Amino acid sequence: MTRGKRTRLQQNSARSRSAPRNAVVIEGLCVIGERGTEAALVTDLGLQGCRVRTEAVGVTRSEALQLWLGEVGPIAGKLKWTKGGSLGVLFDTPLDEGTLEALLEAGEPTSNVIPLRA
Hints:
This protein is mostly beta strands. It has helices at 12-16, 97-106, and strands spanning 22-32, 38-45, 49-53, 64-69, 72-83, 86-91.
């Protein structure tokens, strides 16, 4: 008896995303659930969500989150996925176009190297 090949699973985050994201480097602050405020680094950003790097451990999907990016915030959202120190965030309310453009301009990467905190 032969077995067929297993279907390769596609990441949910990429498949379910309806709006594109842009590469950025934006430092900010983040509060996840009932934890305290901690430093955050946003490495991609779109109208409906972003990818955040923090030192948070033990977080779970669907956990509430608040994010401050410079003068913008708090931005409320929920954790959609975690992988390798990165957190996928879906905003409760999409950013408006003007706010997104201002953040993209301020956070435009100057090179293809994204600084990571140790």
